[in-house]
């Protein structure tokens, strides 16, 4: 038996963060998932969230996160709480036998993440971080090309950018600029995606060393508003990324191999839900009058947006555990942990004045 | 009186490098320039170059570079010789009263470049480096947008990439991998364009510090095959670039301001001669279902390729000096020198183990 429309994975949402709006819509769109409970620090807030976001009125509004975990009708929780609360609530969810879909950045450091992953592992529940672009069929198509020695060759270098321009209110009040809430700032919120894109392109081979770039900007509380880093592998591969709350919305990914180049300008969130595109070129020559061949544009259409595909995949795995006694898919926690390890190394490099830091497991 | 079809600037070409083919075509296309002499170390080679490249058969073939400089019919020289020969021949050309269009990288270091610029200055001849994309009308259009506070805001960050994949013959035999010829390797050949794009976007404000990226690759002779760097300004602007002979042809430029983002994937050599494009977005928001507004695509058509526009501009300036007693335009040597200063700082950072190096004038 599988999770499907008649027997969906029943989600509880912990907290009413802005991103929970997008994910609750995704749960509604996914054919094998449904929202059954929303928990907030007040019942009123949970009720308002349900009413405002077109969530079925029968959904239970709980006045605490605990109540969601105690709700026997909840199979899985989506946790969009501030990063500083992740260990407490993700561990508690696992201990209540709930599958855990955790917002990124997953933890303030790998040691914290390990507590979450250990709880999920020992309870046999599925863990996945909420990195939506991983689940777009475009991502799989691009990965196929990067794996093709005749079209891409050997990975040599890549660059990833994710920025948006926070307004005054954001830069003063958002949880992502508060040292007691999302202490990793732009590195955790945006750099997470850049680091993930780097690992994805490198087929999840950890770099040996991370060196943060000079020019890191912090706010008065010491939270990172803008930073970048170089990541280096033993075989000579090199990656750089830049993330910032201070520049207009930008999401660039350029991956270079000996024979091919992949480029897209909307790798985190596609320009439009469908169709989406990317550019790829192979064995490109520069002639006197231009390029030969021109980069080719690949177009991919989807029935569901990437966040709904993420929910669908998570629910497929959770359903397989719930209904067929399967084991959790280890791929997702492994990828999460590698992302967190690189993030930790970049942060340490920033804190030590841009010195090289070994990425250690 | 101006240089025009009836009274063109008469070029002598010093050497028969591959790039001289493209520039001799550009001289033929420019309405105010013509080739009158080609000099090589052998007359045969010069004659062959003239015959092979559709240069008018009346063009004089000289068996030495000196003979071109002694040719009274030559107004200006184009110098595509290896970088190590630039001081000698560019200075000699200036001392013979010839205007100097010099291939990049212009010199092995700023001190060498200064000898060239001093010779051109004291002789009152026009100096320009051969950085073709500077002369494309697309470049001016993009610069207008970057200067618009309502569309771009304040420059915060940019990233520039120029790579191509040299084949085995290139990596063993090309002058650009030889320490006695083009000792700056990929940094001089490709990084030159990246650094120029950074300075161009920053309105030629020199960065304060250059820090080369770990992961620099050199050949056995110590010539740079792949490298990158971060450039930092006092006001918090930051730029990164990557250049390499080891990855498929890639030419990315992404410039981020508080309000706008500029992006193009063919900044050095357009995909096709005409039309050319770039993308620009302003005040972009991420909605649950995509971007608002989408980046707009700007399309620019030209009558002449950018290298011919470069020749036309150089010839206009040289003609104004020759025919109207004007002074050389100082803009071009100033830009060249800033590019060289940053390049020198990056090189020093590589040589000192990726330490920060002040960019000093």
UniProtKB/TrEMBL annotation, chains A, B:
SUPFAM superfamilies: Glyceraldehyde-3-phosphate dehydrogenase-like, C-terminal domain, NAD(P)-binding Rossmann-fold domains
Entry's transmembrane regions: none
InterPro entries according to UniProt: Gfo/Idh/MocA-like_OxRdtase_N (IPR000683), GFO_IDH_MocA-like_dom (IPR055170), NAD(P)-bd_dom_sf (IPR036291)
Residue intervals of the Gfo/Idh/MocA-like oxidoreductase N-terminal domain: 9-128
Pfam families tied to this protein: GFO_IDH_MocA (PF01408), GFO_IDH_MocA_C3 (PF22725)
MF annotations from Gene Ontology: nucleotide binding
Gene3D superfamilies, sorted: Dihydrodipicolinate Reductase, domain 2, NAD(P)-binding Rossmann-like Domain
Domain spans labelled GFO/IDH/MocA-like oxidoreductase: 148-262
Family listed: Belongs to the Gfo/Idh/MocA family.
Name assigned to this protein: Uncharacterized oxidoreductase At4g09670
Native organism: Elaeis guineensis var. tenera
Gene: LOC105041686
């Amino acid at each position: 038996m599988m999770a499907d429309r008649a027997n969906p994975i029943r989600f509880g949402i912990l907290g009413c963060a802005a991103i929970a709006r997008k994910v609750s819509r995704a749960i509604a769109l996914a054919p094998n998932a449904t929202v059954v409970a929303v928990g907030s620090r007040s019942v009123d807030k949970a009720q308002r969230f349900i009413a405002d976001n077109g969530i079925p009125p029968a959904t239970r509004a709980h006045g605490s996160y605990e109540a969601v975990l105690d709700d026997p009708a909840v199979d899985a929780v989506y946790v969009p709480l501030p990063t500083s609360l992740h260990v407490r609530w993700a561990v508690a969810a696992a201990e209540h036998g709930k599958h855990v879909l955790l917002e990124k950045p997953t933890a303030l450091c790998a040691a914290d993440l390990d507590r979450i992953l250990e709880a999920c592992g020992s309870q046999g529940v599925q863990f996945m971080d909420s990195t939506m672009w991983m689940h777009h069929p475009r991502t799989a198509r691009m990965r196929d090309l990067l794996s093709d020695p005749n079209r891409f060759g050997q990975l040599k270098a890549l660059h990833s950018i994710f920025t948006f321009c926070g307004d005054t209110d954001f830069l003063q009040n958002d949880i992502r600029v508060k040292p007691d809430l999302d202490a990793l700032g732009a590195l955790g919120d945006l750099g997470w995606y850049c680091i993930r894109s780097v690992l994805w392109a490198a087929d999840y081979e950890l770099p040996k060393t991370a060196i943060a770039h000079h020019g890191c900007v912090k706010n008065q509380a010491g939270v990172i508003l803008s930073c970048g880093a170089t990541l280096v592998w033993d075989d000579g591969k090199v990656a750089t990324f830049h993330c910032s709350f201070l520049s207009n919305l930008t999401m660039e990914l350029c991956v270079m191999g000996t024979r091919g180049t992949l480029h897209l300008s909307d790798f985190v969130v596609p320009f439009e839900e469908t169709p989406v595109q990317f550019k790829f070129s192979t064995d490109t020559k520069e002639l006197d009058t231009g390029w030969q061949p021109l980069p080719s544009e690949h177009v991919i259409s989807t029935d569901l947006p990437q966040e709904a595909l993420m929910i669908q995949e998570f629910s497929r795995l959770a359903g397989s555990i719930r209904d067929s006694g399967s084991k959790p898919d280890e791929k997702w926690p492994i990828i999460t942990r590698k992302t967190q390890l690189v993030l930790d190394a970049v942060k340490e490099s920033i804190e030590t004045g841009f010195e090289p830091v070994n990425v250690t497991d």
